[in-house]
Amino acid sequence: MKIQESVPLLPFNTFGLPARAPNFAEIHSLQDLREALRSGIRPVFVLGGGSNVLFTRDPEGLVLKNSIRGIEVVRRFKNRIWVRIGGGEVWHNFVLWAVQNGYGGVENLSLIPGTAGAAPVQNIGAYGVELKDVFVGLQAVDLATGRLRHFSRKDCRFGYRDSFFKKEGKGKYCITSVTLSLTIQKHRINVSYGDILKILEAEGINQPGIADVSRAIIQIRSSKLPDPAKTGNCGSFFKNPETDRTVLERIRLTHPNVPSYELPGGRVKIPAGWLIEQCGWKGKRVGNTGCYEKQALVLVNHGGATGEEVKNLAFAIIGSVEQTFGVRLEPEVNIL
Ligand SMILES: Cc1cc2nc3c(=O)[nH]c(=O)nc-3n(C[C@H](O)[C@H](O)[C@H](O)COP(=O)(O)OP(=O)(O)OC[C@H]3O[C@@H](n4cnc5c(N)ncnc54)[C@H](O)[C@@H]3O)c2cc1C
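Above are the sequence and the flavin-adenine dinucleotide SMILES. Below is the predicted complex in structure-token form.
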């Protein structure tokens, strides 16, 4: 483990933004992490794959790039396994490992960029499945004391793109491993979202397995979302707002086709991408940034953008949606 000074973070964030870490260390083990903490450099910012951060300035103190790897089956039950994944493991590589070994539960989370350690931070979700659905527990090092702490599912307080680690626990821990529960047989196949069923039917697959679902989702995501290797982005920039039914009814007066999803407790979720599109932002370019032409929820760096530019665009969109619909969008991306 070596602490380097003044390291450019452009290669370490999928928006491709030009920040610089005053101090930077890549950690491959718990020992590396503790050694880095012993340097006394504070504050500490834990970085995974950089696929959910917007650097509007240089971080202060020490940036720790989590590269703690490893996938290990730690318990076997009749129809389940518990698998422990190193916090720096690439999430999609783990999903591929699970699918190849016939373990079910994470196939709907295929091709989400980033690391396993960041997955609990916003309770990653896609195509009707969230991390919390397979979550058992995690281990994290308290950045103030260096002590290892276990977090149960309850401790993590998962919500929609939310957890303890985005609230009181923000910036206080480095998640070093995550334990998930996967099925060995009798998998719960979930093809109810998006175009999964359409793709499988076109392939003549009536009784899909986990590998079929994963493949279909990879296909859909590759066609709909910009590849960060070519166009800088962080996926969905905003959360889908959850509102009272009265808000939806009011919008319906002027926009009878407004899409919505029922939530428990009589509340509703309105797709943020639809709201943004109605305000004319889809495909719009502002300087070096813009709103992706195939999905208004995704903000992109067309090349040479700064974090400040992306943030200004995001706030212009928030203002325009609020003015038009009386709904305030909340960023999903972590803005630094
Ligand atoms: C093209 C694209 C598509 C995407 N699609 C989805 C999607 O479908 N669903 C979804 O939920 N997300 C999606 N995302 C967002 C992103 O992939 C996830 O949020 C992912 O979990 C971020 O992982 P990361 O390692 O890149 O985290 P980073 O961006 O490095 O970090 C994100 C936050 O987590 C903190 N953090 C990172 N690692 C740790 C750790 N080990 N311990 C403690 N804190 C940590 C960081 O400090 C930061 O605040 C998408 C992003 C892109 C670019």
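The pocket of flavin-adenine dinucleotide is lined by residues 14, 45-53, 66, 87, 112-115, 117-119, 121-122, 124-126, 165, 173-175, 225, 228, 233-235, 334 (CB under 6 Å).
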